[in-house]
Amino acid sequence: QHEFMMQKSLLRDSAGHVSGILTVGFDMSARREESAPETAGRNHATPADRAALVRHMHRIMLRGRRLDHSFALHLVRLHGHSRNGASTIHPQEDHFLLVMMERLGAILRESDMIAQIDGETLAIVQSQIANSGDCLRLAKRVQAIVHEGGGLTDQKSTTAASIGVALFPVHADMPEALLTLAQAALNQAVPDCAICFSQQVFSPQSEVA
């Protein structure tokens, strides 16, 4: 069975303006165990996208256990709102997500990772954190960048981000468990476009809404 990854990149003219989107497809079947993390720039995720994120977290978890390092998983839900408060879907959603990934990627360290996991949610793996304050500072920077809108919103609409955060090894020590807890924190954050940390520690008996 073949595993494919689609990657999109912004094309810019000589003045630096975005002129189009280049889409490239890769057959990842023979590269599943490579060390470099894969990212995807699509509106709809496939199991390959989630698998790439899980593999990356698994690698840094193994390293973290050896070196006693912690990291954070941020799930970032992007929102578009009209000035009267109604939710909107941005007409250039794919373009907007790519610009956000580019701008957010610029504030991350080389050891961090950003990936798109569905049509409105990004995942950021923040490596080697000292404490939860590091996570909160990054989350606030992410919210500020998203609120700026990337120059893609008109005066009648705004953009915002809700963020759910889970920490390794404080909340969970396996990738899927960390994703589950970050998603639960994100669900709590969404109504108020807030930043929420996981309030649970994963165990096989725990039930996360």
Question: What does the model show?
Answer:
With 209 residues, the chain is of the alpha+beta class. The chain contains four helices and eight strands, in the order E-E-H-E-E-H-E-E-H-E-H-E. A hairpin with a 4-residue loop joins strand 3 and strand 4. Strands 3, 4, 5, 6, 7 and 8 form a six-stranded mixed sheet that branches. It has a two-stranded antiparallel sheet with strand order 1-2. The longest helix is centred in the first third of the chain and has 21 residues, at 47-67. The protein has helices at residues 47-67, 93-105, 132-148, 175-189; strands spanning 4-12, 18-27, 70-82, 87-88, 113-118, 121-129, 157-168, 195-197. Helix content is 32%, strand content 31%. Residues 31-46, 82-86 and 205-209 have low confidence and may be disordered.
Q: Using DSSP, what is the number of strands?
A: 8
Structural category:
alpha+beta
**What is the helix/strand order?**
EEHEEHEEHEHE
Tell me the fraction of residues in β-strands, as a range: 25-35%
Q: Tell me the distance between the termini.
A: 33 Å
| Spans where pLDDT lies below 50 across 5 or more residues | 31-46, 82-86, 205-209
Proportion of helical residues: 25-40%
Shape: globular
What profile does the largest beta sheet have? 6 strands, mixed
Rounded to an integer in angstroms, the radius of gyration calculated over CA atoms is 17 Å
Could you report the average pLDDT, rounded to the nearest whole number? 76
Report the total helices.
4
